[in-house]
Amino acid sequence: MKSYRTHYSKELSGNDNGKKVIVAGWVEDIRNLGSIAFIILRDRRGTLQITTFKKQHKEIFGKLVSLNRESVISVRGICKANEKVRNGYEIIPEKVEILSLADAPLPMGVVDKVNVEMNTRLDNRFIDLRREEVRAIFLIRDSLINSAREFLRKNGFIEVHTPKIIASASEGGTNLFRVKYFEKDAYLAQSPQLYKQMLMATGLDRVYEIGWYFRAEEHNTRRHLNESTAIDIEMAFIKNEEDVMKILERLVQHICKRIYRMEELSILNVDIRVPSLPLPRLKYEDVLDILKEKGFELQWGEDLGSEEERAIGEVMREEGKDFYFITKYPLDAKPFYTMPDGSLSRSFDLGCKGIEIASGSQRIHDYELLRERIEKNGLKPEDFQDYLKAFKYGMPPHGGFGMGIERLLMALLDIKNVRECILFPRDRTRLRP
Ligand code: AMO
Fold first, then answer.
1. Are residue 83 and residue 138 in the same domain, yes or no?
2. Is 234 a catalytic residue?
3. Which of 167, 232, 256, 398 could make an SS bond with 274 (beta carbons 3.0 to 4.6 A apart)?
4. Cα separations (Å) of 409 from 109, 143, 241, 405?
5. Residues 199-221: tens digit of each pLDDT
């Protein structure tokens, strides 16, 4: 055989009757009826049926029916139209090459309808990902990231990558993973915050990074990962946080427009609604009122917990809105770099169906004020000297946001557990595989 594969299952149909093809993939199922056998072969796009007859092809028949499930094979054969088969064709094999024999039993089933526990699935993620509905999430994730990149590039943002081994905290002093850096102590970056801001002093007016957050959060919830990914942007010469929110809402609208027709959504049985703009903007104080009506007693200044977020999501959903901003948080509830607005802040969170998916703000660009806010937050300006220096020699007004990729995906796809949205999750108890 010249090649292991000439066609994916999805690329063939009954119209290819008589065509010589080579297909390859995993043996999902073998139905041996004695004189005839059906092999279901799976590739990244779907499945196809191989039909073999004992009388005509004794050797091939024997080879195929004796395989363990999930073995990898390449099959050369003839495509034959057959209306009784799900995709309208079957492959009559002429040559079979076994590329990898699978052991039995499998650590977990691929097509069995039994519910496999999350831990078993994650322990055997390479098999879990063979399941169509699991793979669908990552195909959608790929499109989501691509469409974000497309939008940001079109709007003048350039892609950057900032250090992930850093000397000081970016989001306050807690939740840091400490690492040994030769003779010194270093940390894993909680976000690109300080670097993306420093870049605003360079003339690279608009930047974005698709990168990693490392957060040593102790809590083990359905919404938190210790290693997560995000789309961060920073933009200069803004008048206020509204300029940043406009980019963010257009970005989520663009992403929705790019993915709402994907066929993978039907595998997951979800509909994505493209939001109309502008998205609703709820002030923090109004959110407290809504929550009070719903029976939550949140004190002024407190951040919303997951229950409160869910309640707001429900209220918005009743109004037909999936996405909504919460604005004007109290200053003390936000990080030191946030621009004050009296006792409030020029900040916002973006919620989607009851889940916080992004947050951002206009930043302080005045050196003295920034120093003061660092101190007020119980942090040491000396620890931020490299960052602070960038504010001393010409720093334009600027702002930005960070949007969690897994959070956005879980909200859009109505997925209950954020671990489903990252290939190999890291949580409080999971460091493998
Ligand atoms: P924040 O800390 O709100 O803001 O993070 C931004 C977004 O990142 C996602 N996220 C997480 N997702 C999963 N697990 C986690 N542990 C986790 N932590 C955060 C969320 C969140 O909304 N520097 C600011 C952003 C900015 O102002 O530009 C920041 O990091 O979706």
1. no
2. no
3. 256
4. 25, 11, 25, 6
5. 999 999 999 999 999 999 888 89
CB of 233 closer than 8 Å to CB of 208: yes
Give yes or no: 261 in active site: no
With bands split at pLDDT 50, 70 and 90, how would you rate the model's confidence at 307? very high
Q: H helices within 260-396, ranges in order? A: 264-268, 284-293, 306-318, 367-376, 385-389
Which atom of ligand 1 sits closest to the CA of residue 347?
Answer: 27
171 pocket-lining for ligand 1 (C-beta < 6 Å) = yes
Q: Is the CB of 75 under 6 A from ligand 1?
A: no
Confidence at 111, pLDDT banded by 50, 70, 90: confident
Same domain, 71 and 196: no
Specify whether 217 is catalytic: yes
Q: Where are the beta strands (DSSP E) in 343-387?
A: 344-345, 347-352, 355-362
Domain extent for 208: 125-421
pLDDT digits (tens, 9 = 90+) for 153-173: 999 999 999 999 998 776 766
Residues 27 and 82 in one domain: yes
**Structural domain tally of the chain?**
2
Distance 40 CA to ligand 1 centre (A): 43
Distance 326 CA to ligand 1 centre (A): 15
Q: Is residue 353 in some structural domain? A: yes
CATH code of the domain in which 265 resides: 3.30.930.10
Instruction: Say if 429 falls within a structural domain.
Output: no
pLDDT at 391: 98
Could you report the per-residue pLDDT of 310-329, keeping only the tens digit for each? 999 999 999 999 999 999 99
227 annotated active-site: no
